[in-house]
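#onboarding

Welcome to the new folks! Below is a worked example of what a typical request in this channel looks like: someone posts a single protein sequence, and someone else replies with the predicted structure as tokens. Don't worry about understanding the tokens yet, we'll cover that in week two.

Example request:
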Amino acid sequence: MGEPTVRKRQLGGELRRLRQGACLTLEDVAASTGLPASKVTRIERAQLGVKASDLDSLLDLYGVDDVGKRDVLHAIARHGSQRGWWQTYRDIISPAYADLISLEADATSMRTYQTTLIPGLLQTAAYARATIEAIRMDSQPEEVDGLVEVRQARQSVLSRRDPLELWAVIHQSALHLRVKSDPRMMREQLQRLLDAQRLPHVSIQVLPLDAPPHVGMSGSFAVLGFPGTSDLDVVHVESLTSALYVEDTAEVSRYGGAFERLRAAALPFDESADLIERLKDTI
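Example response:
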């Protein structure tokens, strides 16, 4: 059995919270719905998917009348049996990366803070290639090609009918030229940021080099928001070889508070755009 995905854990955890909030035991659920207690346990532990009819039975029993929340939970349940476009690249992307892509596909918002890199959803193909080649030290050229394709395909969430609301706070250090032999690449990347900032659903702020000590010194992160309830929001924290997904509601809230502090410390939108423009013109 494979590791449970983030979305399965979200669904299982939410169903467990709803059951406990209704003061019901597993035996109570079994008696009322006809679902074996062992099956409910496996659903809550993200070891088993849940059929739409069974999910409705559980939500009815738990008194969930909110149509929006029910729709969100059904969407999560369906997700486990659907194949996303990223499955084509399963040989070169990790399960953790696949989780991120699927979360982005379902999310309505992303608040991200980046310290040294341009956010992936805003990268040009050339910039993505340069950074992937540097970070994926042992990747073959064909793997790099595939990973660049994946990163570009992820950006479709910004152009879909109901686009992802993206708010990025980028540390100024990420905006400086990194590849001296190819200054055009960085100019194009900075222009990409300026173009993206004109979109109504994209907000970009720069945290300047001279900013006082701040919570972002602990590293980059992204908070993915979902419709209907903040209880299902997830934080993504990436490292060299893996990724951490923070799902505990209290911890997610702390990251949300951290982002608000970073947003307040960063330059306003117009000043951020002016700084990006000046940096582009000096390359």
